[in-house]
Amino acid sequence: MSNLIVPAKEIATNRRGFLTGAGQATLSASAVALLVGCESMAAGSGGMAADVSILNVALGLEHEAINAYQIGAESGLLQQPVLNVAVLFQSQHKEHADALMATIRKLGGTPVQAKNKAEYAQALNVSTLKNQTDVLKLAARLERGAANAYLGVIPSFNDKALAQVSGRLAADETMHWTALAGVLNEMLPQKALSFGA
Amino acid sequence: MKFHWSWPLAIAVTMTTAAQAAGNAEHGQELWESRCTGCHSLDTNRVGPKHRGVYGRKAGSIADFAYSPGVKNSPVVWDEKTLDRWLTSPQDFIPGARMGFRVGTAEDRGDIIAYLKKESGK
């Protein structure tokens, strides 16, 4: 674990902080950026409704990621400095979710609500997680899937600004996956263009 | 019957077409695990519905998954052709669908479909 990049000091540095510190719903810089370019979209158009649907799927994915990291932290299986990195990644997923919710509302949609934690635990089969490596493998799988999901929806967006945002979100998830793969000593992809459809 | 020079070519073309239609389930599994598991699992509903059994199933028919009205009310039954159209552009195939994820190449779609077919016991 010595090669793990320790995150910036502003993140919560203990388990209690992980559980309580990152939940404040503030409109982050990324949320503001997400809203840029949406002003020109005509309210009520079919294209916009389709975009809102895609954003809501993305929000569902972010809700799941937030809860997955929460479950991982509460499992007691993560040690420092891995826990700190999980805190950072979870806080970034919360920023993604805040940004997506703000954008969906701005476009006249209704953001999908998070399920309860027990539902996520069952869906992700977390009862099989026995150690830190298991937790990190689950996180890495979800992050890689999220990166590919964000890349795979880019051609479907009617609004190019949203397509660009999807690319930025994919970059965040790819960064998460790369860090996790490093901790797990997994081989990096040997070929270029390994992400995306 | 006389041998004709074009027969080997015709046989090769036929075999290639058949292989593409069947898809490579092994490669399809790799693609599914990297591209689809952000939202889907085989046996549990997540952001998207569970995939085991999808081949041959009517769209929108899993009882405990909250589909969009468009998918819920669709008469589509998932097979090679419908899954290919879905993965090409879900919202064009079934208007009102929430899924926007596209698989860009026919070969990759065929391989993913072959994997889903295999995992559906078909």
At a glance:
By secondary structure, chain A is mostly helical. Chain A is built from 7 helices and no strands.
List keywords for this structure.
heterodimer, A: 197 residues, mainly alpha, Ferritin, globular, disordered N terminus, B: 122 residues, Cytochrome Bc1 Complex, Chain D, domain 2, 6 helices, 48% helix
Task: Describe the protein's architecture and organization.
The complex is a heterodimer of chains A (197) and B (122). With 197 residues, chain A is mainly α. Chain A contains seven helices and no strands. Chain A has one domain: Ferritin, CATH 1.20.1260. Chain A is globular, with a radius of gyration of 17 Å. Chain B has one domain (27-119): Cytochrome c-like domain (Cytochrome Bc1 Complex, Chain D, domain 2), CATH 1.10.760.10. Chain B has helices at residues 7-22, 25-35, 69-72, 80-88, 90-93, 106-119. In chain B, helix 2 packs across helix 6 and helix 4 crosses helix 6 (106-119). The termini of chain B are far apart. Chain A binds chain B through residues 46, 50, 53-54, 56-57, 60-61, 64, 122-125, 141-142, 144-149, 152-153, 155-157, 197, and chain B through 33-39, 41, 44-48, 68, 89-91, 95-105, 108.
Task: Calculate the mean pLDDT score of chain B and round it.
Answer: 88
Helix amount of chain B, in percent? 40-55%
Shape of chain B: globular
How many runs of DSSP E, i.e. beta strands of chain B? 0
- Integer tally of domains of chain B: 1
Please tally the helical runs of chain A, counting DSSP H or I stretches of 4 or more residues.
Answer: 7
Architecture (CATH level 2) name of chain B: Orthogonal Bundle
The description of the largest β-sheet of chain B is: none
Oligomer: heterodimer
CATH class of chain A: Mainly Alpha
What is the C-alpha radius of gyration of chain A, as a whole number of Å? 17 Å
**Approximately how much beta-strand content do the residues of chain B carry?**
under 5%
